[in-house]
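Thread: quick sanity check before group meeting

JM: Hey all, I'm pulling together slides for Thursday and realized we never actually wrote out the predicted structure for the chain we discussed last week. Dropping the sequence here so it's in one place. If anyone has concerns about the input, flag it before I start.
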Amino acid sequence: MGLPPPAVDLPRLAVSSAVGRAGSAGGTRALPEEVAIALTYNRASYAVMMATPLDIEDFGVGFSLNEGVIASPAELADIEAVGVELGIELRMTLTGEAAERTAERRRRIAGPVGCGLCGVESLEEALRPLPQVDAPLTVAREDIGAAVAALGAAQALNRRTRAVHAAGFWHPARGLVAVREDVGRHNALDKLTGALARAGERAAEGMVVISSRVSIEMVQKAAMMGAGILVAVSAPTALAVRSAQAAGLTLVAVAREDGFEVFSEPRRIRT
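JM (edit): ok, ran it. Output follows.
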């Protein structure tokens, strides 16, 4: 069974109440697909996430890294996305200590679903201490606007559907290096993590830019990536700010082409 497309055109009735244009008309609208993706390690179920069927291998690698299942892509011996009746099975084969760690963890948790912290075992796990970010990169304020503009221009699936989030990696010397999209903001960032890891890119050498608000799990994933700067177009939660401060992560939010707000570690922004 093949994999579903990332978006489909479905019929809809458009109703207008505008003065002079009141009425209705038939037609279609492109909508992003949302499918169940079962992540399995060594053929044992680990989690089921609702996600867009696009860049699925990147999603598997990034999820595995950000959740601490693997320390590097080298601990994944194989990865395969298989279409099944109810969705997609993402089959990943672990090697060595990663296989042992995951078998033990799988015995302790019930399968998470599509929100960033669902299925964690305890409050301590949900609010786990983050690694200290060690990224010497500094950027000019103009770079923030350039990164935000580049991300918006590169969101191909969102241009078609107006319904998905994006996460991108912007390098000071090379511009926007990678972009990944998904209906879930957490999934988009996992996909970006996987794409960078598979390409041998170091997150500490650039900025992570996201099209969504900043909740704690977005800060957690950015810190796990080793990114020094996380830029978002929307506002953060208070817990996200405190977590970024604790990890030494520079958090920039409410970012537009003409300005932004820095909530933690402003030392990396040359103003």
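AS: nice. The mean pLDDT is 92. The chain has two domains: 35-126, 139-270.
JM: adding both to the slides.
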